[in-house]
Amino acid sequence: MRQLIVAAILAAGALVSINAQPAPDDVRLIPVEGEAAKYWSRWRGPSGQGHVTGTNYTDSWSATEHIKWRTRVPGDGHSSPIVWGDRIFLTTATNDGATVSMLAFNRTTGAQLWQTVVPSTGAEHVYWKNTRASATAVTDGTLVYASFGTHGLAAFDFSGKIVWHRQLGALSNYHGSAGSPVLYKDRIFLFQDHDGTSSLRSFVAAFDAKTGKTIWWTDRAETVGWGTPIVIQAGTRDELVVSSQRRIHAYSPETGEEFWTVRGNTFEVIPTPVVGHGFVFVSSGRAGPTFAIRPGGKGDVTATHVSWTSPRGSPFVPSGLVHGDLLYLVNDMQSILTVFNAKTGQLAYQDRLGEPVKEGFSSSPVAVGNKLFFTNDDGRTFVVEAGPVFKLLRTNDLGARVIASPALVEGVWYWRTDRELLAIQ
């Protein structure tokens, strides 16, 4: 009898948990608003997941065709460009990573306006495909915020002055740091997972955007991770979602309290989660699983809030793309595009993008109208028509190595290659 009562209580709890899930229309990745929506102020743009407003963007280019301007970028970095007004911002590393800095360029001409060095000590160890300037900056139109891994978090004004700088402690991530900071209301979110050999533990934290002071700080047990968190609206509450080693966590953006977790990620996780049809879609590395998670739960919701999962087609580095009813993922270990019905997890199709290359894609895709753009590390962009059947429209070749993702503003593509910043129109 006691076992039956316990089972009934557990079943009732699971039912309440399921019923507590917000309706699909009440789940969204929080976009930027106001003037910010005109530009490309953060990682993956105004939508936070690669959706582009407007269709007046060329879908055809080469190393010489449709180039509005090109300019040399000093140093080494894989951070993607962000845009506000007439400025483009990038981070870079020089002197074999011993020096890290913020760069600003004129959006009309490509001329470099300034370079501001951030106080640093030594050089962080990085994987051959990583750099000491891989995290994309974010701006609110007044300040530009950037993470430099072990060299800390910094805010710059538009003239290049450092407004504040937080050195958070030495990080020991065996591939180096990469995750980008996230702006939300009056605060900046950052998570850094590393092996904790220094006095600094892995953490997720919120910092005051004006001063850099800590608003809240939550220690984490994970030891490996390079992803960027997202902030979603899930019914009546907002959630900060972190996908990393072994688990996905959701935290309160206000307090850092943990809301829920889902188990099942692999050891190494890079892709940024995407949102659609009431789900948060997360993928983990080297062809690990992809999960469709209903947010809004409490505690470990692996058994109650995972609607579907697939072991096939997951990316190691690039983030996913939700377009219409479909979820698009690039398995960069085999150069295969895998497309699922986002609501059910049913496979729509799989097809190859170019030659199979191990770790051959890094840039995250973008959607312009009904065209999807997938760019590999050799600078070749595969233009695919959105839909349940594979249709390759064309392939564009920049003739340069591309790890960063593009920014798209007012009809112009802004691409960072391994040596230049390009404007394509």
Helices and strands, with pairings:
Layout lengths: L1 H18 L7 E3 L21 E2 L14 E6 L9 E3 L2 E8 L4 E8 L5 E7 L19 E2 L3 E5 L5 E5 L4 E5 L15 E3 L2 E6 L10 E6 L5 E6 L10 E5 L2 E7 L3 E5 L6 E6 L10 E3 L2 E5 L6 E4 L5 E2 L1 H4 E5 L10 E3 L2 E6 L4 E6 L5 E6 L13 E3 L2 E5 L4 E6 L6 E6 L9 E3 L2 E5 L3 E5 L1
Parallel strand pairs: 2-29, 19-23
Antiparallel strand pairs: 1-16, 3-35, 4-5, 5-6, 6-7, 8-9, 9-10, 10-11, 12-13, 13-14, 14-15, 16-17, 17-18, 18-19, 20-21, 21-22, 22-24, 25-26, 26-27, 27-28, 29-30, 30-31, 31-32, 33-34, 34-35
Can you put this structure into words, describing what you see?
There is one protein chain. With about 425 residues, the protein is mostly beta strands. It has a domain at about 310-425: Beta Barrel (Lipocalin), CATH 2.40.128. The chain is built from two helices and 35 strands. It has helices spanning about 1-20, 300-305; strands spanning about 25-30, 50, 65-70, 80-85, 85-95, 100-105, 110-120, 140, 145, 155, 160-165, 180-185, 185-190, 205-210, 215-220, 230-235, 235-245, 245-250, 260-265, 275, 280-285, 290-295, 300, 305-310, 320-325, 325-330, 335-340, 345-350, 365-370, 370-375, 380-385, 390-395, 405-410, 410-415, 420-425. The strands form eight sheets. The protein has a six-stranded mixed β-sheet. Strand 6 and strand 7 form a beta hairpin. The radius of gyration is 21 Å and the shape is globular. The relative contact order is 0.14.
